[in-house]
């Protein structure tokens, strides 16, 4: 059955597209949700009159994809994973892992749109992932996989070189024995 889509339908097409679908899919899913209308001369004429409006929406999507592409290519995604001493990961970095890292950076990207060469990254290093955007547009994202203990940790505050300040009095007493205590212990050991 030929239908014309009223809205963008995932895995089927965009608004205004004429598609050939199964009768049951059209009757039971597309028509009750007003996602599509039957393709006939009257509906074709209606969508022909809206052609400029639909093209404007598609152009806005293309512009948004171009802007997102620039932002994604400028971003560096750093993922910390548990790894062995030789740099081999205990798990693997998948497109789900990269998608979660992109969400943490503020990018709204679907997991299915992220493609990794070789499907997974299994060792520490720098890689590139491809994010498929609208139509044929795609962005190449730099992915840096680090060992979990080796990521750039925040520097600890430097203590003065001369006399480090103890954290509490108990640790101060344990670090510095009293002057009177040290001498008798040494003489007792000599006897």
From TrEMBL:
Q: Which InterPro entries match?
A: Ribosomal_bL9, Ribosomal_bL9/RNase_H1_N, Ribosomal_bL9_bac/chp, Ribosomal_bL9_C, Ribosomal_bL9_C_sf, Ribosomal_bL9_N, Ribosomal_bL9_N_sf
Q: Which residues form the Ribosomal protein L9 domain?
A: 13-40
- Where would one find coiled-coil regions in this protein? none
Q: Name one GO molecular function term.
A: structural constituent of ribosome
What Gene Ontology cellular-component terms does the record carry? ribonucleoprotein complex; ribosome
Task: Name the Gene Ontology biological process terms.
Answer: translation
Keyword terms, alphabetized: Ribonucleoprotein, Ribosomal protein, RNA-binding, rRNA-binding
* Annotated Pfam families: Ribosomal_L9_C (PF03948), Ribosomal_L9_N (PF01281)
Protein function: Binds to the 23S rRNA.
UniProt lists the family membership as follows: Belongs to the bacterial ribosomal protein bL9 family.
Protein name as catalogued: Large ribosomal subunit protein bL9
The gene that this protein is the product of is rplI
